[in-house]
Write a structure and sequence with these properties.
heterodimer, A: 398 residues, alpha+beta, six-stranded mixed beta barrel, two-stranded antiparallel sheet, 55% helix, 18% strand, B: 244 residues, alpha/beta, seven-stranded mixed beta sheet, four-stranded antiparallel beta sheet, 7 helices, 11 strands, globular
Chain lengths: 398, 244
């Protein structure tokens, strides 16, 4: 039998049994749909998180106050945690292999201009912070390079905050009120999206010394260290710990984390989660396969006379088997394509809705779903098809 | 073209063995017109199925003329040791079947049902059309070629079935109660058609209950309990008994 004729023969069967065909098609497409959609969502989520982390860059070390032990022991009873001070930051900046150091204080404060006020994220930082966080200036300038402990009434604001306070009016040179004190806008950030929970678009950045006065604190929230070369990262992390231990009278009460390690740990976890949910989708594929087997079995018993006839007309067992298997494969292929198209469409719609998140099913998920669908069709139609093929023609005709 | 030697076939009906074919000896020449008659359960359908390679005897030999491209007339093949795939190919190329209940495929039109053996044999469409047109014309089905079986009368359905049986140009045509489901008028038409085909040279074997139909054949075989009890050849209205 020529393949074109076989195709047409199968199409006749499928279009004749419309309800059965529709049910199998739906079952198979739901299975594939689930796999592609779930992996798409998982991958989208993973890539979102990775993008958030990679804002920091691979060559950044973060120094946090307090010791984060993973051993789960009791926190030290004496001493407690000591603040990280501006002097600590300055001494880290003097280390070899350090490109720059951003000393950070983070808090919330009410920012007002004219009649409008907003509760805004206030970040105390220095000039190095901008290249480290890859912040672009849209208008005006960034914080100038000046001693860490020098306070000045200046600030750089995010585009969202600018819009909220000034609408379309020019903001540069204007004075903002921040809970009692004042500062002049010297720059406006370019739109940069969120990073690690800090939405820089609606933040206000001021010199770190000014923010310490504002929040009445001596301690830094974080120090970000820009490492000159990634290869010296591990060594530098040790050096930082040593310097800080010396400065804190022998006590190691800071934690140094490398985004790269966090990144790869997250990547692993998220990849496993993606695989797990893809596996859940795979179960529905399997169920669809069972359904195809049942339906093919029913089809075989309904078409016993036809099988007998085909054999009497000279169809070999191989050809009869091929008819049933190819019929199931056609159904699976159509169902799988339908499922993939639906899933991609939905992912696309979701992506339109959430601009920040890019949900794209990885190509391997679609390919795998397609392969598994065809595999299911093959495996689950094989048994009924073999049964059909092994029917002796006389018995089938009776 | 057919030589059956010492063929036996036993069925188990419940726990009772039934000797459906008992030491059958039969020789049929090309172009013969044969009727097989007998009471129900006499083994006549089993014999027909065996002759049509739909069923395999338990023992004995069944020699059937094979490839007609071979020039020798004695190109007989013993079909008993063949495997099912070879038998299928043999059926496809050399044997046509007509059944009492037509066995048309309901989703295919009359023309497509007739064409089906050509499709199964993998013959390309233009060649199929060339063979199909004259047969549809001969069957008088031009008007009905595009109709589905359930839109056809019983006689038309049986003519479609005959068309399907002869489209591969077999040498042997087997008919199992071909008029069993038809009224006398359409039955007569179908019988005429079959006899025309026989006159063209095809070997025709008809199994029937109908005494009138059976009597039309030049050679009449009567079976009882799996044995051939009568084998009558009519030559120029002279009856010659060969068995019984």
């Amino acid at each position: 039998m020529r393949w074109q004729d076989q195709l047409q023969f199968n199409l006749r069967v499928l279009s004749r049994q419309r309800f059965r065909t529709l049910m199998q098609l739906i079952a198979m497409s739901i299975g594939v749909f689930a796999v592609v959609l779930l992996t798409g969502l998982g991958e989208g989520g993973r890539q979102f998180v990775m993008a958030e982390f990679s804002v920091l860059g691979k060559d950044i070390l973060i120094v946090m106050p307090g010791r984060k032990e993973t051993s789960g022991g009791m926190p030290p009873l004496t001493g407690g945690t000591r603040d990280i001070t501006l002097q600590d930051a300055e001494s880290l900046a003097r280390l070899r292999n350090v490109e720059g150091v951003a000393a950070l204080v983070v808090g919330k404060a009410e920012v007002s201009y004219g009649g409008r006020n907003r509760d805004s994220l206030v970040v105390g930082a220095n000039a190095d912070f901008f290249p480290i966080r890859h912040l672009q200036i849209q208008q005006g300038q960034a914080l100038p390079d000046m001693p860490l402990d020098q306070a000045r009434p200046i600030c750089v604001i995010g585009p969202e905050l600018k819009r909220e306070l000034f609408s379309a009016q020019p903001a540069l040179g204007q004075w903002l009120k921040i809970t009692g004190s004042r500062c002049q806008v010297i720059g406006i950030l370019a739109d940069s999206g969120t990073g690690l929970g800090f939405d820089m678009n609606s933040a206000l950045i001021m010199p770190v010394a000014s923010s310490m006065q504002l929040f009445n604190t001596q301690g830094l929230y974080r120090i970000m260290v820009d490492v000159r070369s990634v290869s010296s990262m591990g060594k530098l992390a040790n050096q930082i710990e040593q310097v800080m231990q010396q400065r804190h009278e022998g006590q190691l009460d800071i934690t140094v984390i490398t985004p790269a390690s966090v990144l790869s740990a997250f990547d692993d976890i998220l990849a496993v989660i993606t695989l797990a949910i893809a596996g859940i989708g795979g179960i529905s594929l399997f169920v669809a396969g069972i359904l195809i087997m049942n339906m093919t079995l029913i089809s075989v018993s309904q078409r016993t006379a036809e099988i007998g006839l085909l054999k009497a007309l000279g169809a070999s067992s191989r050809e009869v088997r091929l008819l049933f298997v190819s019929e199931a494969l056609m159904l699976c292929l159509a169902g799988a394509v339908l499922g993939i198209v639906c899933a991609e469409l939905l992912l696309w719609l979701i992506s339109l809705q959430f601009k920040d998140l890019l949900f794209i099913a990885p190509w391997w998920a679609s390919a795998l779903a397609l392969l598994v669908a065809l595999g299911c069709g093959l495996v689950f139609s094989w048994l009924p098809a073999r049964r059909a093929a092994s029917l002796p023609p006389v018995e089938a005709l009776r | 073209m057919i030589e059956v030697k010492q063929v036996n076939k036993t069925f188990l009906l419940g726990d009772q063995p039934v000797h459906a074919l008992n030491n059958i000896e039969l020789k049929i020449e090309a172009g013969e017109y044969l009727s097989i008659m007998g009471p129900s359960g006499s083994g006549k359908s089993t014999l027909l199925n065996m002759l049509g390679l739909l069923d395999v005897p338990d023992n004995g030999e069944y020699w059937l003329q094979g490839n007609d491209s071979e020039l020798t007339t004695s190109s007989l093949v013993d079909t008993v040791p063949m495997d099912e795939e070879d038998r299928a190919r043999f059926r496809r190329d050399h044997i046509g079947f007509v059944f009492q209940s037509y066995h048309l495929i309901p989703r295919l039109t009359a023309a497509e049902n007739i064409e089906l053996p050509l499709v199964l044999a993998g013959i390309p469409p233009h060649e199929r059309q060339k063979r199909l047109a004259p047969i549809i014309k001969r069957l008088g089905l031009e008007e009905r070629a595009g109709h589905l079986p359930n839109q056809l009368s019983g006689g038309q359905r049986q003519r479609v079935a005959i068309g399907r049986a002869i489209i591969m140009r077999p040498k042997l045509l087997l008919a199992d109660e071909p008029t069993g489901n038809l009224d006398s008028h359409s039955g007569a038409e179908v019988v005429e058609l079959l006899e025309e085909l026989n006159a063209d040279g095809i070997t025709l074997i008809v199994v029937t209950h109908d005494a009138d139909l059976g009597a039309r054949a030049k050679r009449k075989i009567r079976m009882v309990d799996g044995e051939i009890v009568l084998d009558q050849l009519t030559v120029n209205s002279q009856t010659v008994n060969e068995a019984g």
